[in-house]
Design a protein that fits this description.
heterodimer; A: mainly alpha; 12 helices; globular; B: Rossmann fold; seven-stranded parallel β-sheet; 9 helices; binds guanosine-5'-triphosphate; binds magnesium ion; UreF (chain A)
């Protein structure tokens, strides 16, 4: 295990996470979460849905970030700076995949805010071409799991560790928020988290498995030209992948050579209940947490 | 840092950015009233932005927007998730993001004021967020408060004791407050205000002007501290 994982997972990482409850504040107000028992169910559900998606996105981002680090080392420390830098395209695509898995605009906004704050902080802690290119590719802030995966790469962690950190974040923020909001016994809540530990590991492994499918796909972002990833000849890519999708989003033009099948390998187990909680939270008259 | 300013993740360099002034203090002492007063007094001569840290609502930001003391778009609210002091001291990311958003949208600015959520006597601003800070007490907590000290009272660049108009009603002795504050503050300034009676908080505004002036023209703050 890379020790930097501990820093990444620490709630004291100064990246704005303390102000988000991941739907817990609204669940408390709605009466869905009232004590340790239903908090346990809330966290288990969150981990199995949003947690798994976040873990897979973080693992994918870590894979992209590690490739960015390697490439820049080969091309003399310059990760590319121009708007048309092809290194930005997979970041945008991955971020769009996160968007597609986040139905609620309120959740998207919260995820982007947290991602932006994390990248702002991580760029100073772990300066890296991965974070530079992500920041330029998605200037308003990438989704938090994408930012977390890129940060993990910058810190020297591997995709499995990035997935574990994302799974951990998906339950610890809401758990802490519930302690504050309901005055729960903090030891009892930590007991719940300890009980979830095997599931965290399983979630990270499931994310890794999905990622294997992703990286094994002939349309995966880095497979065509190992020297300069993502600049490959589109025709080449078509020849090698039977299932070529085309991006219609103008921001993603140029990414059409990436196979949709490879991105579809990333889990999309989102939770409608979390989307609904995020939307009603945004409309609440009073709230302590941003989300 | 500093090589690329084309995105919203990075802090500009020290030179040429607005002075960041933190205003902290206990709940209800008059922080928002002071921000409004400073906007009234300094608005005509300075380019301003304001960030509020509300605890539970967007009350303070709404109050300032309604007060018409500043273009409503130049007031941003940050939420702090039960921990107002965390957002100004231990994890300043959201506040920095708000400050830089204002500078990016309306810059260059001369002064960005960050009002913390009402908190206890130990809450102070990180130097990573505020270049200079004011701690606001009021007389209604009793004249013992300055004697109790705490980092806010002892280390703030300026201590403001507000609501002097209430002193006779609560039996607070201003000379005691002044003497005790002087004793724990090592010569740093203390000003007494009644923003109820002086809606421009002119003494404080004058002090802030001086600080902003040093920041932009002389490149240092109080006591020879050098601008990074
Ligand atoms: N009598 C008197 N009342 C004042 C004075 N200054 C402010 N107030 C009143 O005190 C109350 C609290 O003032 P705010 O400016 O909202 O205090 P605050 O420190 O921003 O409060 P929080 O942000 O909630 O911690 C308001 O009702 C103000 O009108 C003053 O000089 N004298
Ligand atoms: Mg206030």
């Amino acid at each position: 295990m890379h020790a930097a994982l501990l820093l990444l997972a620490d709630s004291r990482l100064p990246a704005g996470g303390h102000a988000h409850s991941g739907g817990a504040e609204e669940a408390v107000r709605a009466g869905t979460v009232t004590g340790p028992d239903d908090l346990a169910r809330f966290l288990r559900g969150r981990l199995a849905t949003a947690g798994l998606v976040a873990a897979a996105l973080a693992a994918a981002a870590c894979e992209l970030g590690s490739a960015a680090v390697d490439t820049s080392e080969r091309v003399d420390g310059d990760a590319g700076t121009g708007e048309g830098d092809p290194a930005m395209l997979p970041w945008r695509r991955l971020d769009a995949e996160a968007d597609a898995r986040t139905a609620s605009p309120a959740q998207r906004e919260a995820a982007r805010t947290q991602g932006r704050l994390l990248v702002r902080t991580a760029r100073r802690i772990w300066p890296s071409p991965a974070l530079e290119s992500l920041a330029r590719a998605v200037p308003d802030g990438a989704h938090h799991p994408v930012a977390l995966g890129a940060t993990a790469a910058a810190a020297g962690c591997d995709p499995g560790q990035a997935a574990l950190a994302a799974a951990y974040w998906s339950v610890t923020g809401p758990a802490t928020a519930a302690v504050r909001l309901l005055g729960l016994d903090p030891v009892a809540v930590h007991r719940l988290l300890a009980d979830l530990a095997p599931s965290l590991g399983a979630t990270a492994r499931a994310a890794r498995t999905a990622l294997h499918t992703w990286t094994a796909d002939p349309g995966a972002p880095w497979t065509t030209n190992p020297d300069v990833p993502w600049t490959a000849d589109p025709d080449d890519r078509r020849a090698s992948s039977p299932d070529i999708g085309r991006a219609t989003d103008p921001d993603l033009i140029g990414v059409e050579f990436m196979s949709d099948a490879c991105w579809a390998a990333l889990p999309a187990t989102t939770a409608p209940a979390l989307d609904l909680l995020a939307e009603s939270h945004l409309r609440a008259e009073t709230r302590l947490f941003v989300s | 840092m500093g090589a690329h300013h084309d995105d919203k993740h990075d802090a500009p360099d020290g030179h040429g950015r607005a002075l960041r002034l933190g205003i902290g203090g206990p709940v209800g002492s008059g922080k928002t009233a002071l921000v409004a007063a400073l906007c009234r007094s300094l608005g005509p001569s300075m380019r301003l932005g304001v960030v509020t840290n509300d605890i539970y609502t967007t009350e303070d930001a709404d109050f300032l927007r309604r007060a018409g003391v500043l273009d409503p778009d130049r007031i941003l609210a940050v939420q702090t998730g039960c921990c107002p002091h965390t957002a100004i001291r231990d994890d300043i990311a959201a506040n920095l993001d708000a400050v830089e958003t204002l500078e990016e949208r309306f810059g260059p600015l001369d002064l960005v004021i960050v009002e913390s959520g009402g908190d206890n006597l130990t809450a102070t601003f990180s130097r990573g967020l505020a270049d200079s800070q004011i701690f606001v007490l009021d007389v209604s907590g009793g004249d013992k408060v300055p004697r109790k000290g705490g980092p806010g009272v002892t280390t703030a660049d300026l201590l403001v004791v507000n609501k002097t108009d209430l002193a006779p009603m609560v039996g607070a002795d201003l000379t005691v407050m002044s003497r005790d504050a002087g004793a724990v503050r090592d010569g740093r300034p203390v000003l007494f205000t009644s923003i109820r009676e002086d809606g421009g908080a002119h003494g404080v505004a004058e002090w802030v002007s001086g600080v902003v002036d040093s920041w932009h023209h002389h490149g240092h703050l109080h006591d020879g501290e050098v601008v990074p």
